[in-house]
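Session log. Operator J.P. requested a structure for one protein chain; no other inputs attached. Running the standard single-chain path with token output.
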Amino acid sequence: MKTIGIIPARYESTRFPGKPLVEIRGKTMIQRTWEQAGKALEHVVVATDDERIVQAVKSFGGHAVMTSADHCSGTDRCAEASEILSSSGYEHDVIINIQGDEPFIHPGQITLLADCFENAGVEIASLVKEIEKEEDIFNPALPKVIFTKDQFAIYFSRSPIPHIRGKDHGEWFGSHRFYRHIGIYGYRNATLRQITKLGLSSLEQAEMLEQNRWIENGYRIKIRVTDLDTEAIDTPEDLARITGKR
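Structure written below.
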């Protein structure tokens, strides 16, 4: 089984234009993300829509492919990159989608996710982490997930799930284990191509979470629980906060 990492990285961003090329202690964000991914995977490719990012990746010895500027999600960008790679003879069985705005992602998380595909029945996989702060349960920016006993996702929501009946919100934390989703995905090659051809679903529209489209169409998402944290950089303020701690 051949596994590759694809890092979707677009230049335009409403909250942080040019984010992949911002420097963090002498290296661009995309280089740091690529280096962290390379500690877990032998083959890592950046999928972008901007020639400036392509040139930056080449400058540090990385591999980049140019994709459409019209993609709505990193999943769609990964699918196009996968097709480009396949058409050039670069065969692969599993794709790990590593967010380009996580320059400090832990390689152990990538390995944990990739290991899910040792089970031939796994089509899609992702990670979750137990919520450790009460306020995070009610933060809509942190998607929550519930899953079965054999760790397949049931549903993703921006609301607290499950609802704890008969208790005030202040009593929820500690009365149940809540999990937040960590936005790294793995897909089998054929499955990735299938899910990007699905139409927008009602649950996806309600929550603005593409994972719900896959579940609504009958795909199973394997869940692994990680103890390691991850911090995405969405704004310049995030960058200052995260780098200030490291």
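Operator note: The chain has a mean pLDDT of 93.
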